[in-house]
């Protein structure tokens, strides 16, 4: 049975809420620790990484449990419903650090609530990803669904990257988290309502935890794609983690360009994110069309190659006093990032079908858990990698948002958000062509 437009769009809506937290943990936690709590950047990077590594431990368990859940609402909905409460509660607590705590107290407080928020995130993200393989087995429908998803995700990026920093600057990070929490929960709950009558696999998977994941890992094409998507995510996570620093130290508005007023009103970081999101939203229909015309693999390769070129252009443009020119580059970067956002998420459910056809087992939750493993590992490592690079270059932490940095530290930051991610994306392109393509051709033949 074909999905309705409302079901496709409704499924995509949930990601708007999920991505708000993804952006917060990638973009703001490291900056909050180093620039507002005075935590040395190396320690802050490893604390952030430790929490995200812990988060990966919960993925297989929740994936397995969601495959085995039986309820009148289906296998996935109960997890997503309660996760939409746990995640924003943890996010609010993360930033509501009591005044007067010592360094150790600040770290314990932030770490505890960060763990809670990431558990809530997993309760949503694993079952949500599983639904892509469950409610349709049509590859073209999956591309359309993912286009809707990433369009809504772009709005979530805008809220997380543009609105929250502005509110945080005016009223504090905790108040900003409180403000967006209804959006997070509401997006997930409305998505569940919109997809309630979509086709679902209701029968619990009749296998144990170890057999479930052995079956998933036997799908070689899927395993290669997981690794390569993790490589891509490492590049994007490095950029995201470094952007708050770049907005402060590498883009200094001269005050006389077309968007200077907007940069002053929104902050440079918020303006860059708004430009990035505009490009991402504009590109979604294009990447769906190119996926149909070129095939998903070659559309992704094209997008990543364009991304590498944009990052090289950004390297040449930084540091800059022309905020308008940098915003223009970010619009184009958002359009190329649309391929990374959308296409892999439409590719991996197709590989679920291969295992289901071969074994008769509906293991979408286990697939979703393994899929997110590479992404979460990259997101966990990126803050630590950035922290090591900046610390080695002599980066100085601050408690007021700004402190003078050496030329070497600024050069390291510039490389960390441009040429280093470009090199990582180039490795992913080679991997897609050399390793993934032959595996996928055999599996999907």
TrEMBL record:
Its cellular-component GO annotations read:
plasma membrane
- List membrane-spanning regions: 12-33, 39-58, 79-101, 107-129, 150-168, 174-194, 222-252, 264-290, 297-315, 321-340, 377-395, 415-436
Keyword terms, alphabetized: Membrane, Transmembrane, Transmembrane helix
InterPro entries xrefs: MFS_2, MFS_dom, MFS_trans_sf
> Could you tell me which Pfam families the record lists for this protein?
MFS_2
Residues covered by the Major facilitator superfamily (MFS) profile domain: 1-441
Listed GO biological process terms: carbohydrate transport
UniProt GO MF annotations: symporter activity
Q: Which domain of life is it from?
A: Bacteria
Report the family membership: Belongs to the sodium:galactoside symporter (TC 2.A.2) family.
Q: Please give the name of this protein.
A: GPH family glycoside/pentoside/hexuronide:cation symporter
